[in-house]
Design goal:
Elements (H helix, E strand, L loop, with lengths): L2 H14 L2 H8 L3 H15 L4 E3 L4 E3 L1 H33 L1 E5 L1 H18 L5 E5 L2 H9 L5 E5 L10 E16 L8 E2 L1 H4 L4 E4 L13 H10 L7 E4 L2 H9 L4 E6 L3 H5 L3 E6 L5 E9 L6 H16 L4
Parallel strand pairs: 3-4, 3-5, 7-11, 8-9, 8-10
Antiparallel strand pairs: 1-2, 5-12, 6-10, 6-11, 6-12
Helix pairs in contact: 1-2, 1-4, 2-3, 5-11
Length: about 300
């Protein structure tokens, strides 16, 4: 029998001052409990109890052991609580990467649900460019990230993409912009600065194999002939749009309500906006991780509640 169990039995006998009552509470037979207390006295080489007509009382040795045993029991219980809390944190600590649009669309709601279910865990949210987030995923700095499907993604990187829904891109500019109320052609956009939010960074290009396709896409937008402003901050982008005639030429149309609160409206183009598939990127070895599965289920539920899927 372990020491902690014997001490727990000793505490019950010492507090109840009755072996029979203690045995009943501990779900032991009285002879077994009596024998265990005799073994404890023999091991310590001191008398712990004095037998009386009504039960037992503790000796001075017993009083000292009771005080110390209760202290040890409290320390042990607190240690178990701390260990369980540490296990919870290690198991459910969450690090998510996401684009600005997806954060405002549904990821922020998932964050609030997750933190309420796991109030003791650490949570980190990283917002930014999809290639940068892929790099963070590969380095283990985040557990998963939400972004649009990356065409030409190098298959050797070992990342699983789980599609969630489809979005269409739109153009955005400040309310009162010269292009408001007009059917905007690609040529008309050349007269205004093109604002790029979270553009690709050169150091992450090795993640994508089909770089030529990206160059063709940029050429179609005539970006080589146009003034380009860029930022990795949604707050900065809103300020830049509101204080200039810049156009955010390609951003998810689902952000229209959010932008409207900041006096930024969608422009009507002569060409249909590009459609993108949005999903979750996960390292293949983390697909079965409990906290990753849990947050994915939360995301699906949030998207269903918002009628997005």
């Amino acid at each position: 029998m372990t020491v902690d169990k014997i001490l727990a039995q000793f505490i019950e006998v010492a507090l109840l001052k009755n072996v029979s009552h203690a045995a009943k509470k501990l779900h032991l037979s009285q002879p077994t409990l009596t024998q265990n207390m005799k073994k404890l006295e023999a091991r310590l080489g001191i008398p712990l109890f004095e037998r009386t007509a009504s039960g037992v009382t503790t000796t001075e040795y017993g009083d000292l052991l009771l005080e110390q045993a209760q202290m040890m029991q409290r320390i042990y219980s607190n240690t178990l609580i701390k260990l369980e809390s540490f296990k919870e944190r290690q198991t459910h600590n969450l690090r998510i990467g996401t684009g600005h649009a997806w954060w405002h669309l549904f990821v922020s709601d998932c964050f609030n649900r997750y933190r309420m279910l796991h109030p003791e865990v650490n949570i980190h949210i990283d917002l930014g460019n999809h290639l940068r987030l892929i790099d963070l995923l590969l380095s283990g700095d985040i557990d998963l990230f939400i972004g649009h499907e990356i065409h030409g993604l190098n298959p050797r990187v070992g990342i699983h993409f789980h599609p969630l829904f489809t979005v269409t891109d739109s153009m955005f500019a400040r309310d009162g912009h010269p292009l408001c109320g007009h059917k905007v052609t690609p040529e008309a956009l050349l007269d205004f600065p093109h604002l790029k939010l979270t553009p690709d960074e050169k150091r992450y290009r090795q993640i994508v194999e089909d770089v030529q396709q990206q160059k063709l896409s940029r050429n179609r937008l005539h970006l080589t002939e146009q003034v380009v402003w860029s930022t990795n901050s949604l707050v900065s982008a809103i300020d830049m749009l509101n204080h200039s005639d810049a156009v955010l030429q390609s951003y998810p149309a689902c952000m229209a309500d959010y932008f409207a609160a900041h006096h930024i409206i969608p422009l009507k183009g002569t060409q249909q906006g590009q459609k993108n598939i949005v999903g979750v990127y996960i390292l293949r070895e983390k697909i079965a991780a409990p906290h990753v599965i849990q947050v994915q289920n939360m995301m699906l539920q949030q998207l269903e509640n918002k009628n997005i899927i």
